[in-house]
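for the recovery benchmark. tokens below, seq after
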């Protein structure tokens, strides 16, 4: 692994620590604000006057900046799966700081995430040399990636204008499909923008090229769309179901998009690719175990308890949509832990 990959891994891991810790800090702030005012879970906004909650927000922003920078140094197939480490940080800090017990399956899930992350880091592909944002633009305009973009655009439009009005409020995959498809394009654009800023800081000004601003525009469009439909998913379905499914779909599509655009695995052997895929599957298994443990814990606790972490996927849009205040209401917490992937609509 070259020096750029080392930097990317260090930034991605530090990002997970900051983001994982931010949810605990914000939770502490929310509890403190709720003790003296209306809780956020039932519509209160007293947390906005709580310094501890703002400290958590600043911590999250630092983590997002580190995550953004990581894409400038390392391939997306390495950076994106490492976002699962934030779940481990949240679970560990929740256990020690908030005295919220981590069960045996949760510990197993943490170990699986760590083992899978190590596999991915050890066998990660080398980042190709890019000396200008124009190089990224050439990769983005190759026929294979243009075909992928076309498929994504058509699929998203079909989902938004045909499936959302008919099945969006009953089938969770409709909203999450839109979020994941747009998310894969947002990561590619974030990576391009990160490379442009990195080269500019190094003395090779990339702000003179229109492609830099086009990538920034795509990032804005994709993130806004993700936030919109992820908020709908979180408002309609239980977070314990939304988060793991979104993580799987988003990460899988991001790896596919990165493999097509940057040809990450072009110089790797079959055994290295299989090892990386096994690491990815191991992380997915650990993530689902952590979510399962969290859902069972939330349902076995009192009606006034608030889940600390929801195993948040490693995406900026998801964390922006939650903003530390997407907490379960007492009515939601009274639901059982058996939640289908669709909801029956009598109408």
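predicted aa per position
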């Amino acid at each position: 692994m070259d020096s750029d990959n080392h930097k990317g891994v260090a930034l991605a891991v530090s990002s997970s620590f900051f983001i994982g810790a931010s949810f605990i800090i914000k939770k502490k702030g929310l509890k403190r604000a709720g003790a003296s005012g209306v809780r956020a879970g039932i519509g209160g906004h007293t947390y906005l006057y709580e310094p501890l909650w703002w400290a958590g927000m600043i911590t999250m922003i630092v983590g997002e900046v580190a995550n953004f920078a990581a894409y400038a140094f390392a391939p997306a197939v390495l950076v994106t799966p490492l976002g699962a480490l934030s779940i481990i940080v949240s679970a560990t800090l929740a256990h020690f700081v908030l005295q919220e017990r981590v069960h045996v399956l949760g510990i197993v899930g943490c170990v699986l995430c760590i083992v899978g992350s190590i596999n991915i880091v050890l066998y990660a592909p080398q980042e190709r040399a890019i000396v200008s944002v124009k190089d990224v633009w050439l990769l983005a305009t190759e026929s294979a990636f243009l075909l992928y973009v076309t498929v994504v655009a058509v699929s998203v439009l079909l989902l938004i204008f045909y499936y959302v009005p008919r099945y969006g409020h009953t089938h969770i995959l409709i909203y999450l499909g839109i979020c994941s498809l747009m998310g894969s394009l947002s990561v590619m654009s974030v990576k391009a923008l990160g490379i442009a800023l990195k080269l500019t800081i190094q003395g090779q000004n990339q702000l003179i090229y229109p492609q830099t601003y086009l990538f920034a525009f795509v990032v804005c469009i994709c993130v806004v769309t993700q936030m919109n439909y992820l908020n709908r998913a979180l408002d309609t379905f239980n977070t314990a179901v939304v988060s793991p499914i979104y993580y799987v779909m988003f990460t899988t599509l991001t790896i596919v998009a990165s493999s097509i655009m940057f040809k990450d695995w072009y110089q790797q052997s079959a055994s290295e690719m299989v090892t990386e895929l096994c690491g990815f599957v191991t992380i997915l298994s650990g993530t689902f175990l952590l979510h399962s443990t969290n859902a069972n814990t939330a349902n076995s606790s009192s009606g006034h308890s608030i889940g600390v972490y929801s195993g948040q996927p490693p995406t900026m849009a998801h964390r922006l949509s939650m903003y530390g205040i997407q907490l379960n209401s007492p009515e939601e917490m009274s639901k059982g832990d058996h939640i289908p992937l669709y909801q029956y609509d009598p109408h």
